Amino acid sequence: MDRMEKIVFKTLEEQSKLISRSFKEMGVAITAYFKGDDETLQKSVLKIRNHETQSIKYKHQNLETVAKAVSIYRSDFFRLVMKMNDVQANQAGSTVRLGNIRYSPRPEDEMIPKFQQLVEVFIQMGDTLHDLMRKLGDDMHSAASFCNKLDEIEDNVDNIYRDLHGHLYNRADIPLRIIMQYLSVAKHIEEACDSCASVGDSVRIILATH
């Protein structure tokens, strides 16, 4: 592992820590939303936006590091850095959209446990991504198992998302505009998880060159 790789992996670990915190904060936000606690929801939105701002700084730092490196593997690292940025961007998008919904579902609404299930797996994805980035800087060759775990979680997310998606499309009792907002929140969560799996694919490419 050369100096550039060590620097990038360390920064990615810090970035993944922010992402994991953001995913957990989404759990707080979704719970607050369904309880009608707008104050807690808006606090969570602000925290996640702050995490996003710091994450962008890490991205720029890594891009500068990779750009200065003289290595045939630079494109692999560029890809990894940009995929990490996609994760944070999609996650922040889901929370901001949740904060803009002006609708109060009943406490017994059937969509609530479906959303909660999606977010629970979402949080698991964030923790696994953080574990992967820690392994890259510590024991690179054991990182592949975490890439596989990301794929497994993504499959689970896809199944939960499809179930929620179908449920929402059949809800004639909720205004269409609100349905579309809920779908947008769920889609951004699903895309953030897709981006996590793409990070795993980028890591596999780097592992194959070492």
Automatic annotation (TrEMBL):
Q: Which SUPFAM superfamilies match?
A: PhoU-like
Could you tell me the superkingdom of the organism this chain comes from? Archaea
Matching InterPro entries, A to Z? DUF47, PhoU-like_sf, Put_Phosphate_transp_reg
Q: Spell out the family assignment given in the record's similarity comment.
A: Belongs to the UPF0111 family.
- Xref: PANTHER family: UPF0111 PROTEIN HI_1603
Q: Report what the protein is called.
A: DUF47 domain-containing protein
Species annotation: Promethearchaeum syntrophicum
Q: What is the lineage of its organism?
A: Archaea, Promethearchaeati, Promethearchaeota, Promethearchaeia, Promethearchaeales
